[in-house]
Amino acid sequence: MKVYNSHEIKNIALLGNDGSGKTTLTEALLFECGQIKRRGRITAKNTVSDYFPVEQDYGYSVFSTVFHTEWKGKKLNIIDCPGSDDFVGAALTALNVTDTALLLINGQFGPEVGTQNHFRYTEKLHKPVIFLVNQLDSDSCDYDTVVDDLQSIYGQKVVPVQYPVKTGPDFNALIDVILMKKLTWGPDGGEPQLEDIPAEEKDKAEAMHKALVEAAAENDEGLMEKFFETEHLT
Predict the structure, then answer these.
(1) By the 8 A CB rule, do 227 and 214 touch?
(2) Under CATH, domain 8-158 is a member of which superfamily?
């Protein structure tokens, strides 16, 4: 068994309202990292999370599930937490032992009551949060509105690092404003194809990249000094 140094281990709490898609995301993460041979489905009752009979009967998480995988030389320990307020103790326990919270947002509904409750716990425990907007392939998903809602609730510290070229059934591509590349997936998923950002998306991507760089500089003194010197961060 490989031995990891402490800086090579990342502990993450996976949070989100009921129905945001945590269990399905867990299956996708494990599949893409090669930990499982096929993705399970909640309706088939064969997912890595939600394996207790009571969870399979209810169709949602009751207990936290711990899983791990390796990605780019880092060991990721992820705790998939129940979304219901009835089982919030599991989320609080996970946040106490993890470094970061990954807070899933249902792209059809945007921030929900559960979102705000979970965020309140992350603030109390001083944990950084990554928002992940899920279900971008839904007809009723409006990514820009979701981001606007998040920024109106939590302020300009909500800074996108990726955005979809389009949402709905034709969703298959993201613009990554860190890499400044377009990521396109085929119908079967797998590794994305990296492409140059199309001309019609260039201005939007550059504006979002600038906002991201400025946000990073504002929160780190060393980066701020470098930014003032070069007006650029890698």
Answers:
(1) yes
(2) P-loop containing nucleotide triphosphate hydrolases (3.40.50.300)
Q: State the distance between the two ends of the chain, measured CA to CA, in whole angstroms.
A: 35
Structure tokens at 162: 């990726």
* pTM for the full predicted model: 0.84
Residue 10, beta-bridge partner list: 76
The closest alpha carbon to 15, from 137, 124, 98, belongs to: 98
In 10 A of CB 169, how many CB atoms?
9
Kindly tell me the burial class for residue 139, based on how many C-beta atoms sit within 10 Å of its own C-beta (0-12, 13-18, 19 or more). Answer: exposed
Contacts of 234 (CB under 8 A, 6+ apart): none
> Pairing relation of β-strands 74-80 and 173-176?
unpaired
DSSP state of 50: S
Q: What is the pLDDT of residues 167-205, one digit of tens each?
A: 999 999 999 999 999 999 998 777 899 999 999 999 999
Structural domain boundaries in the chain: 8-158, 161-234
User: Phi, psi at residue 66, to the nearest 5°?
Assistant: -100, 130
